[in-house]
Amino acid sequence: MWRGRECPPDGPRILHGIGGEVKKEKALHTKIAQIGVGFDHRFGAISVPIYQTAIYKKKFGENLGYDYSRSENPTRTALESAIAELEEGARGLAFSSGMAAITSLSFLFEPGDLVIVSDDLYGGTYRFFQEIIRKYGITFHYMDLSDVEGVEEFMKGKKVRAIFIETPTNPLMKIADIRRLVALAKTQDAITIVDSTLTTPLLMKPLQLGADVVVHSATKYLGGHNDLIGGLLVTADAELGERLYFKQKAAGAIMGPFDCWLLIRGMKTLAVRLAKAQENAEAIAAHLYRSGGVGKVYFPGLPGHPGNDVHFSQAEGPGAVLSFELQEGSILPHFFDSLKVVNPAESLGGVESLTTHPATMTHADIPEGERLRIGITDNLVRISVGIEDLSDLIPDIDNAIRACFG
Ligand SMILES: *Cc1c(COP(=O)(O)O)cnc(C)c1O
Prior knowledge:
- With 406 residues, this protein is an alpha/beta fold.
- It is 34% helix and 14% strand.
- It is built from 14 helices and twelve strands.
- The strands form two sheets. The protein has a seven-stranded mixed beta sheet with strand order 1-7-6-5-4-2-3. Strands 8-9-12-11-10 form a five-stranded mixed beta sheet, with helices on one face.
- The longest helix has 20 residues, at 270-289.
- It starts with 27 loop residues before the first helix and ends with a helix.
- The structure holds pyridoxal-5'-phosphate.
- Pyridoxal-5'-phosphate binds next to helix 3 and helix 4.
């Protein structure tokens, strides 16, 4: 039985000096838990108020900074300054979805621009680049960004506008060295963009590694509860932030006040959610690695995972998404049909464990030949590990694997 923490033996009670000095700069976990606290000067609300308003009454000659909620809204301001602080960037911007954030970001590109992109890219971003933006004369070149020499070789004699990085990629968990890619980009005045959805500022801070812009699908870990769609951008410098702010208000794909509030509410528990999910993912990856019927396991936390030294030089933990292949002879649909705890559903980063079949779900828009070439095989399964109890998760996954060979 738990009896509480042991107290020090009797002695003089100390009033000062127990906990050290009060720090000027709060720890990341403190900042996350207290997002929005102090925002409401008028009534002192601990939870940021939802300013469900389109417009603001004006007094002649007075400017409180709010005119029209496409341009700015106080609830959004609270969220945008919070994400900028967490990423240690100059400017945060909130959008109606991760793709809306990426859309507004793409307005930076001009006809004739060449953009280098991770080949094992989020399917929706790939679809947007290929089906929509490409026709405006922008070329996207997909490469394995874990191969920095390959990127350097490719860049020779060309003019690159941007490098768009995902690391770890999803589903194959390929690792890109952000510092080295930033250095390469700088040789051509190209900007570096990092989609940091899988890591969140708790595990990795791309701007501190030299990147210019961070992208988040807030739908995933930041929201954390599979109850909202949202996207965020953070820039390292204020000037680029201002340019992107212009695109945000001009194109208008903003996050609404209620979703801003809901996202702030979700973000407050990010530290504990992610810690638990990550602990579960480490245990499941290790278990799968030893399991019969399972081929390759992709998880940055496994010792032999390619690039895991690079990953841990730029990130604090392995994250909580993993993929694995079922061995030849498995009947894949049985895996998804047999699960009772893990839910087959697209998306990742929520408290509930979810599984997808990348070949037919998240990556269905990538042409088959290209998909197979990069390693997203037909029997690849991805799991976004949630915060449930391992005693339910592991037997459920085991049982579903067994069913594939039955
Ligand atoms: C989900 C996701 C996106 C797109 O975000 P939405 O909120 O679904 O629009 C972009 N990048 C990554 C890595 C994602 O997982």
